[in-house]
Amino acid sequence: MQPPDLLKRYEDIRRTSVALAEPLSPEDCAAQSMPDASPVKWHLAHTSWFFETFVLAKAAPGYAPFDASYRFLFNSYYNSVGGQYTRSERGLLTRPDLETVLAFRRHVDGHVLACLKRGLDEELASVCELGLQHEQQHQELLLTDVKHLLGRNPAFPAYRPAPDAPSVRAEPLRWHSFPGGLEWIGYDGDGFCFDNERPRHRVFLADYQLASRPVTRGEYLEFVLDGGYERAGLWLSEGWSRVRESGWRHPLYWHERDGEWFEATLGGLRELDPDAPVCHVSHYEADAYARWAGARLPTEAEWETAAAKLSPEGNFAESGLLHPRGAGTPADAPGQMFGDVWEWTSSAYGAYPGFRPLSGGLGEYNGKFMSGQMVLRGGSCATPVSHIRPSYRNFFYPPDRWQFSGIRLALDG
Amino acid sequence: MQPPDLLKRYEDIRRTSVALAEPLSPEDCAAQSMPDASPVKWHLAHTSWFFETFVLAKAAPGYAPFDASYRFLFNSYYNSVGGQYTRSERGLLTRPDLETVLAFRRHVDGHVLACLKRGLDEELASVCELGLQHEQQHQELLLTDVKHLLGRNPAFPAYRPAPDAPSVRAEPLRWHSFPGGLEWIGYDGDGFCFDNERPRHRVFLADYQLASRPVTRGEYLEFVLDGGYERAGLWLSEGWSRVRESGWRHPLYWHERDGEWFEATLGGLRELDPDAPVCHVSHYEADAYARWAGARLPTEAEWETAAAKLSPEGNFAESGLLHPRGAGTPADAPGQMFGDVWEWTSSAYGAYPGFRPLSGGLGEYNGKFMSGQMVLRGGSCATPVSHIRPSYRNFFYPPDRWQFSGIRLALDG
Amino acid sequence: MQPPDLLKRYEDIRRTSVALAEPLSPEDCAAQSMPDASPVKWHLAHTSWFFETFVLAKAAPGYAPFDASYRFLFNSYYNSVGGQYTRSERGLLTRPDLETVLAFRRHVDGHVLACLKRGLDEELASVCELGLQHEQQHQELLLTDVKHLLGRNPAFPAYRPAPDAPSVRAEPLRWHSFPGGLEWIGYDGDGFCFDNERPRHRVFLADYQLASRPVTRGEYLEFVLDGGYERAGLWLSEGWSRVRESGWRHPLYWHERDGEWFEATLGGLRELDPDAPVCHVSHYEADAYARWAGARLPTEAEWETAAAKLSPEGNFAESGLLHPRGAGTPADAPGQMFGDVWEWTSSAYGAYPGFRPLSGGLGEYNGKFMSGQMVLRGGSCATPVSHIRPSYRNFFYPPDRWQFSGIRLALDG
Amino acid sequence: MQPPDLLKRYEDIRRTSVALAEPLSPEDCAAQSMPDASPVKWHLAHTSWFFETFVLAKAAPGYAPFDASYRFLFNSYYNSVGGQYTRSERGLLTRPDLETVLAFRRHVDGHVLACLKRGLDEELASVCELGLQHEQQHQELLLTDVKHLLGRNPAFPAYRPAPDAPSVRAEPLRWHSFPGGLEWIGYDGDGFCFDNERPRHRVFLADYQLASRPVTRGEYLEFVLDGGYERAGLWLSEGWSRVRESGWRHPLYWHERDGEWFEATLGGLRELDPDAPVCHVSHYEADAYARWAGARLPTEAEWETAAAKLSPEGNFAESGLLHPRGAGTPADAPGQMFGDVWEWTSSAYGAYPGFRPLSGGLGEYNGKFMSGQMVLRGGSCATPVSHIRPSYRNFFYPPDRWQFSGIRLALDG
């Protein structure tokens, strides 16, 4: 049985994706700035491909695909569905153009909405829900990918003007203590969650502490100015190799001009806000900063245990800022656990004990990436608020920097 | 003193460039399919940058650049002018968008036309002429680059519908004999030529023969079917390495489907025309084919001596075909020496004895590329007819295949 | 206070390293077959550098280094000690030659033995012990590196003739059940352990099962013949990419000739022994095999809990086989947990809760590699038996195959 | 009919190769410092493979190869003979060891000498002569390759002590004029020459001048200190790219320490001799230096015409210096045209008009490399004097620097 609000959520979420592309020209929507990023147009098409492939093919008998070649062109990585267009060349697909992709979306929307009006059985409704969660993930990627594209343009054009929302001055960092013991983590509600959040299971934690807020740009700048990028002893071996190979001297998007520091944002080039959480750092940088600060990164179990009682509120995509902001912190719990910046943990992304991937092609959604990546928690200023949960596990490779990824410090008990 | 027709030629040539972009969407004009190719939009901007930098800066005192950042963004390789945006990332410049680049063109055109109406001194008139020749070169590159982009799209979209112009059946290849002796090559007229065509000088040639027409697709297909790409002994060592590394089995843009051969053209995917000259072969392939055929490639001096008495007529860009075509061949001279396909020679591109590059920044135009490249002669179906001369020297690297490059066979006397 | 047997152990272990090089020519000892491997000669020198740098510099006042340039040449990765010769070019160090390196060893041995006879304080004695453990690690690497070198020689020369030691026929695989609950892992004895085995701490385990023996070559061959290397759905995404890029079709050192299977061993090329544990598989292959078999890899906590009561006995380096061998399995516990092959776990290599690296330069020994690698357990046929413990954590990158790395299957309880 | 001195020359030249390896350890003879260089041991084996493959296989019926696997292992690039061991991995062939390779040489020598004593027919005698010329080429490569290997060792070990042979102070550079006209180049004697020196043919030259001696180290240092490596305008486009990618700041083997200049030589690290000809420069550097000096490089026809009347005398391998040396220059002709340093010309390496490669497998000797390389003339201090002729054409790629390659300047008439 289809949940009552699925139709409305479908309309809202699909509309939001199109709205995100509106400030952009057809050229902006077509370019790909690195293999890890995709063109905006590709995000718009791929999310529609998802519904066509996994929902309409079953829910709408006799459904004729909008264009048979899209099955190949807009498949991301589902080997069980078939071959895929070369990932690093998505920016060469000048055809179909943006208008055609938008027509593809309308075509898919018409058919899915018809299905939703008729009503989907439970299995298909849950695939449709997965499609919406998937689309929300791509909304965030669309923003981080277009930030990367515009951030490589020497003129640093703005994606759209940023609303005026001044930071609150960052309070000195405090520590919150958490007693160790046997804890449950993983999702156990009756709403949506990804397969990688299950099964809920017990973990044993030693006593630990979490910082009252994420590390700020101002604090991170001290690390930079203290020679943080020149001291091998602060870094993991892989991280140090990367620093030297890539010439990293500071987070992605930072620019120093005559001793003043700026950063490229979705609102254009701005002065660095010292009170806002630092972001666009790799796991290596987060780890090195923590070592420099005499602390460490939290495990994902520590993070989730601390976050479990908090509700996901904060600076999410809906604020329209699309940028982290300094905020006041509550006295009784770590602040800014949700929104603003994803928080790197010290946990490698892997299967929970007893993990079972989804069946069929969708089994490729999460499980096959459980190698080489690190878990991030809490969502960012580019994440839709309805998309996040305390048990939500995001994952990226240690050197990745183009997400809104920041740092929460932890200490042993 | 400015030549009388310079103003009219300026208007015609500049208009032609814009017209070439008209069949294309903004996305088509922005993408870059490989480092050697440039986006259409970049060609349109760079050719305007040329006039702004080398003509307006001197001819129009007080001239304000359309946008100061373009000096950097649209400089191709002129180190003496300043730094350059990374060549391989031209496809990331989604801003300025196509409209803005067209406005840049109109801005430059207005100022140049005003100068031309006032009259330019001889030196600046000759720089302006060079700018027009430069623009014609980029018209050809615009076409070959967009062919490459569309040719990598799995749907093989057409740049524009091709006119109906059937090939004439290729006659059997005959040989034309040329007696050896001391010959003059290089330009000695009073029209325009590039610095690399001078000075006119003497060369000694042994007796030689040239084929009556370029090698056809049908003939080249025989080489393919005879295992030409699997026999090391036919190839230069570098060529054989490249064949194995790149997996070459036939010319660029050819596709075999169930034993039938097709090729991607600017008019979309078509059946291979066996009577038309083969093109999109590298120097390595041209050389290997010649060895297989018991012949060799001509030197540029042999080619020019044979072409010197012929006038440049043939299938050039103005025909609108944008594709080589089989044609009848005259009895008394090699046919299709001009147009259809550039003909690889066996001559490495280098300085003529006594060569002097242009002075100033324009000295970087030709001279600094005199290493590692091979000379091609005669122009192609994408070359403007007014751009070509018997003494014209084009040059590309031996593995390059995305130009309309074909094969003329030669024999010792 | 120096432990009573330290002097004797020093003499034994140092002598063993030299003995391992004896079957080899100077050329064999000098070559480097890939950046991950080091020349035998380099292993002999680096292990001596370790004593010179970390023991003699403090324990022998006025000690004159054998050659001042060795501080740089034979430093592996200790940034706090100074710069390092380029790792991938160790094979270019034809000087110092083997004789000189052996003289360096004797020089160092003379001085260390003098110190040991005088007696070292507790701290230096523990550094000396670490140096011996370090040397044992390099003994194993020396063997795996020379296996790699000789295994790339088309003649597959033997390192030394292998003793005659036939396999026992592998019994059908059975499962041993382990009840879940709160368990302690990590070292808590009073002997030597590495910093990464501490602190001992509690983990919560769900019920699980372990296979009665490692996966055999015969079983793995079934996976190969069943198209295991052609079915994307069996692989982690990174693993599948690697399979395609590297053309993997079977474990390292396997060779198929006319339907018969052989493998290159330290005793030369031999027929594949179907009863012996499979080895030289990457983590990706171990994971894919487990998925194909309907099982999974164990976590390191599961492995250690099961191994904690067993004593490290089995086919270690001292057997002289230098090759895994099929063996009978006990009824009441998993067999071959120690020796034969290292067993890949599903655990990413990371810090135990409360981990503290060693102080000073030796802090770089283990901690800085806690990123991107996976834990292996149990030792191999190339590990000295005195070097292993149930809590011992080895670690390599997921694609690494040149160690004696094999597969132990696990199941949820 | 076999020339009378062939047997003696065989003995001398084969003995010389072995003598060149005598100062070296087995390790020195086995290592490969870059893909372009080969191990000394490989040179010793490959030159014997040549005689086994091209002489003994025909001249000694029933000849049993020393080891059948050598046909593959020591084939350099003769596809018509069969496959080849990977070029870049020659340093991994620790077996066969040096002793075995020397035994291979003795085996081959015994059989070839027996043939020579019986007498070879004209065709086989000429192949045998080619084998000796080939061996002399590898003697030079052996020296330049071992120089490269030892030059990468931080200790700069000497290949052997250099004899004491002080330079003569370099006289100021003068110019020698040569009148233009129709000249003959290419070999026309009745001795040995390579196929690429034929056929002798006419070329037309304009008036030109050649420098009285090669450019010295002192003169080249002025170019370095004048910012030669920082001024794009002095360089070919490819050369400038290479300078930036490779970080070139001076010739290979130069080292600056506190303002003093040294160079690694086959006799170890020495102070730079300002009077000796500069060497170990690429074609790009030679070309840039010439531009800086207001001159150009000669064509190979200009060089040969000037050299044709001179006899090859100078500082060749037989002097034992293995290093260029400043020398007095004659008044009436350019000095040091032979020996000391190979002189880069401005001529791309290609076929002479009417060129015919040798028949059979030996046709791969020279012809297939006629792409992408530049001609050098005159021999070097590592070339055997009996190996050189005015018509001799050596060829390397423009970025190559590990040969004794230097600069002779030229001017237009």
Could you characterize the architecture of this molecule?
The structure is a homotetramer of 413-residue chains. Chain A is α+β, with helices and mostly antiparallel strands and 413 residues long. Chain A has two domains: 4-151; 175-412, paralog of FGE (formylglycine-generating enzyme) (Alpha-Beta Complex). Helices cover 32% and strands 12% of the residues of chain A. The first copy, chain A, is built from ten helices and twelve strands. In chain A, strands 10-9-8-11 form a four-stranded mixed beta sheet. In chain A, strands 1-4-12 form a three-stranded antiparallel beta sheet, covered by helices on one side. In chain A, strand 6 (260-265) and strand 7 (268-271) form a beta hairpin. In chain A, helix 1 packs antiparallel against helix 5 (98-118) and helix 3 runs parallel beside helix 5 (98-118). The first copy, chain A, is globular. Chain A starts with 5 loop residues before the first helix and ends with a strand. The model of chain A has no long low-confidence stretch (mean pLDDT 96). Chains A and C meet through strand 3, helix 8, helix 9 and strand 8 of A and strand 3, helix 8, helix 9 and strand 8 of C.
Q: Most extensive interface: pair and counts?
A: A-C, 39 and 39 residues
- The CATH architecture category of the largest domain in chain A equals Alpha-Beta Complex
Main pleated sheet of chain A: 4 strands, mixed
Named CATH topology of the largest domain in chain A: paralog of FGE (formylglycine-generating enzyme)
Please identify the top-level CATH class of the largest domain in chain A.
Alpha Beta
Strand portion of chain A: 5-15%
How many domains comprise the coordinates of chain A?
A: 2
Radius of gyration of chain A: 21 Å
The CATH H-level homologous superfamily of the largest domain in chain A = paralog of FGE (formylglycine-generating enzyme)
Amount of helix of chain A: 25-40%
User: By helix and strand content of chain A, what is the structural category?
Assistant: alpha+beta
**Ends of chain A: how far apart?**
47 Å
Query: How much is the average pLDDT of chain A?
Result: 96
The number of distinct β-strands of chain A equals 12
Order the strands across the largest sheet of chain A as they lie in space.
Answer: 10-9-8-11
Which parts of chain A are unreliable, with pLDDT below 50 for 5 consecutive residues or more?
Answer: none
Shape label of chain A: globular
Written as H for each helix and E for each strand, in order along the chain, the element string of chain A is: HHHHHHEEEEHHEEEHHEEEEE
Q: Helical stretch count of chain A?
A: 10
